[in-house]
Q: What sequence folds into this?
């Protein structure tokens, strides 16, 4: 069976319909994953205050949040304190993540210091940016499913400290279960990144778990409309993949059972395989296209992969084949593999090796703010 880059889903695989949106299931945790606070919702985040610098948080749309450095013109906005990244690392294994609010009411989140309608973005907040912000590198952070604010902050604060703004994208299980919805979401993210406020800025991509799938949906639109979207591909200075979900459909179905319901892993696998078979044209065919897009990635900037051998959601052999393919295409690829670790939690499990590898990679990129000491 062909190699497939997929993301995990929750325990059952119903044919998605609009009436399913908003249903909640009991959460289960694995590493940094919450499986899942909201089965079909992107999920709003809540704030966790700490010491360190200050930044402004702006909700662009459901699932998309922008964190940027304050400047004089934004004095009338609510400022949220950014957690010091070194402190965050020290408490990464001991501090519990706050509970996520209901996805039905994302506006209730205290992290969302200001809310904007999605369109037009530029007409409502471009006046708050100054020339310094317009040139700051932008981190496109595509998080794992159900990412909690405390866990996300441990990553994003490092980049805020390095002089970058952060563009957080959170995905829903439905974006995978029904890929056409994932493509729509990918286009939404792409259009926001092409708004005047962001269009001239260098981009560093960080995709974790399901984030790799969402980024592939963005790449699909870039390959379909190279003249329209080529600017974004050229602005990417580097891309980082943490716990990219990879393997065959059967491999992923087995991993699902082992992760969600070990005692019923055979049943979960069979349900997953049945779903993919029943809705092949709406699922598997889309995944096959995504594989081709990712393997022939139009972005040729340096790449970094973090993965491990014992990840039920990532087949290291499949991933290493892709890394080899990219290198043969002339892409500079750095990888860090551990024999044992936890999916989407390598920084918590191996902080020194993780940060050392990340620092060396960032220092190799041609953007001065990234060269600060990690």
A:
């Amino acid at each position: 069976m062909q190699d497939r880059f997929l993301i995990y889903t929750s325990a059952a695989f119903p044919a998605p319909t609009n009436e399913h949106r908003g249903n909640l299931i009991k959460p289960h945790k694995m590493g940094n994953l919450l499986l899942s606070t909201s089965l079909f919702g992107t999920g709003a985040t809540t704030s966790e205050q700490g010491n360190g610098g200050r930044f402004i948080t702006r909700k662009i749309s459901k699932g998309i949040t922008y964190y940027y450095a304050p400047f004089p013109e934004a004095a009338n906005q609510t400022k949220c304190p950014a957690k010091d990244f070194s402190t965050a690392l020290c408490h990464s294994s001991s501090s519990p993540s706050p509970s996520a609010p209901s996805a039905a009411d994302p506006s209730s989140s205290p992290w969302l210091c200001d809310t904007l309608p999605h369109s037009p973005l530029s007409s409502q907040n471009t006046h708050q940016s100054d020339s310094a912000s317009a040139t700051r590198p932008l981190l496109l952070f595509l998080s794992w499913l159900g990412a909690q604010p405390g866990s996300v902050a441990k990553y994003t604060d490092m980049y805020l400290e390095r002089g970058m703004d952060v563009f957080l994208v959170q995905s829903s299980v439905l974006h995978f279960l029904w890929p056409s919805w994932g493509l729509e979401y990918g286009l939404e993210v792409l259009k926001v990144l092409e708004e005047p406020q962001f269009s001239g800025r260098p981009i560093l991509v960080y995709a974790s778990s399901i984030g790799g799938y969402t980024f592939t949906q963005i790449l699909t639109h870039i390959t379909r409309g190279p003249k329209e979207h080529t600017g974004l591909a050229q602005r990417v200075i580097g891309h980082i993949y943490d716990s990219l979900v990879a393997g065959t459909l059967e491999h992923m179905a087995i991993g699902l059972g082992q992760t969600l319901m070990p005692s019923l892993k055979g049943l979960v696998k069979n349900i997953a395989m049945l779903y993919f078979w029943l809705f092949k044209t709406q699922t598997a065919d889309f995944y096959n296209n995504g594989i081709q897009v990712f393997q022939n990635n139009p972005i040729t900037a340096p790449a970094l992969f973090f993965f491990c051998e014992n990840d039920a959601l990532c087949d290291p052999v499949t991933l290493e084949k892709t890394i080899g393919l990219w290198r043969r295409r002339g892409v500079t690829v750095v990888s860090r593999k551990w024999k044992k670790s936890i999916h989407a939690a390598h920084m918590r499990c191996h902080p020194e090796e993780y940060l050392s590898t990340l620092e060396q990679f960032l220092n190799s990129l041609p953007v001065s703010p990234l060269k600060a000491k990690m």
About this structure: Confidence is low (pLDDT under 50) at residues 1-31, 33-53, 72-131. DSSP finds 14 helices and eleven strands in the chain.
